[in-house]
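Researcher: Please generate the 3D structure of the following complex. Treat every line as part of one assembly.
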Amino acid sequence: MITIYIYLTAAVALFAIALAGLLLTRHLLRKILALNVMGSAIFLLLVAIAYRGPEAPDPVPHAMVVTGIVVAFASTALAVALARHIHAETGMVHLPEEQA
Amino acid sequence: MIAWIIWLPFVGAVLCYLEPRIARLVGLAVAVLTLISIGQLSAEVMRNGAYSYPMGGWLAPLGITLWADGLAVWMLLLNAVVGLGVSLFASGYFKAPAAKHFWPLWLLLWGGLNGLYLSADLFNLFVTLEVVGLTAVALVTLSRERIALTAAMRYLLAAIFGSLAYLLGVALIYAQHSTLSLLLLADLNTTPGTLLALALMTFGLLLKTAIFPFHFWLPLAHASAPAPVSALLSALVVKASYYLLLRLWLFTYGDGLAAAAQVLALLGAAALLYGSLQAFRQRRLKLLVAYSTVAQLGYLCLALPLMFIGTSAAAYHGALYHALAHALSKAALFLAAGLVLQAYGHDRLSGLRGMATHLPITTFTVALAAVSLAGLPPSGGFIAKWWLVTAAIDSGQWVWALIMLAGGLFSALYLFRVLVIALLEPRSGAALHPVPRGLELIALALALLAILIGLRTPELLALLAPGLPLGGPP
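Model: Done. Output below.
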């Protein structure tokens, strides 16, 4: 039972690191990576809660993680493609500050 | 039958991607067929009540269960009517190469939206939210403007962060209750862990719905997208995350959440005032319309807490009527703005003098949309605001009632400002590009519908009756 708390603490710590990365860094690639780390934190949490002692683990969180990885892959691919276009068009690797 | 509503747009999207030459034809066929299937589904739900359908015969929790009730049918129909209108408009508006990308992305977006409204489990809702979010972002980039790229990026980062906050909430719900079913949420006891999960999901959805102060990504993304895309984003996409917010709160609301609901009302009121002020300050038509969306979403957020106090369904009906009226009038307004952009080559308000002479139909469209957005009788917007204000007064929440009335006045002010400029004497020598009459009429039809739904209230409300939340679980 102790092990699950280790996993939960690790997930919370990862989420916090990712949140800091998302909000405090300006480089687009860092922001995209931060969102990936945030996803991993949630996947870690889901895999940990699937644990049911000596019984076989609960398959539902596993299914969620597998689907979640596909979703994370798709959104990362779109984000990276957009970042590349922004770099090609404006030469910048971060978002402009100004608002309309 | 019910699965076709999701399949049709997805199959159409793949076809459009594989055969760009027939994309327009496929897109329009899918739009018509989807509207017909949704019409059949709503007739069925009206006749037999809400029902669930396990896809492929696989039962939950590993299978995906679809669930159709009055609320789902309402949102599906809203989508299909606006979707058909915008599809018709887009078929005349987009030229190659933008058309090649528009049709597959729009049909994927539509499939995602239909899937979202028919999903009955929290995780499938996450997946459909992501389909909707990613395709919406990709659609913004169809405009060739440089500013659209950075606006799309900001939108994407906000959308993914919102989805992940929602997913974390879903994981916490599953960890404590071993269920993902939306319909079982009502039975959850509100432990601190469940409340944390609800808070995370609510935050994620507020971010995706662009409720003040999480609206920062919306104005530029909606204003820099091509007109038909702006219409889809403002009319349909932000309503999807709002719908989920509504479901979550309707199912889980208890006395313990009364204070939290008032926080939502506060955010809604702030959105209404801030969005109106910003709309009034804008110098470009599309940005004005985009900030008007920020303001109008405030009504939807403000309506949430009103639903839980007292026993009347006025706030619930008002919110959904507002969603419908806003979708129709905002789509019309953005399409009209696209035509203005096409005719003048810009959308600076100061340069639109004489628009009433140059583009009489489009000016009339803006006027009709303004009537509904400002909540003047007999429009759909009037009915919605009437119910919302009634609900606020009945439950003794005078402050919210006053703010909603003021919001209507503000919308009238910033929209009539556009009309005043349009009615000024035209300056001579302005070379205008011709605008297709058919496109003008499509925008006009949507604006007219926003007025007409105000005259058919009992028939429309009958659609909402089957199933939750007012009928109780099946």
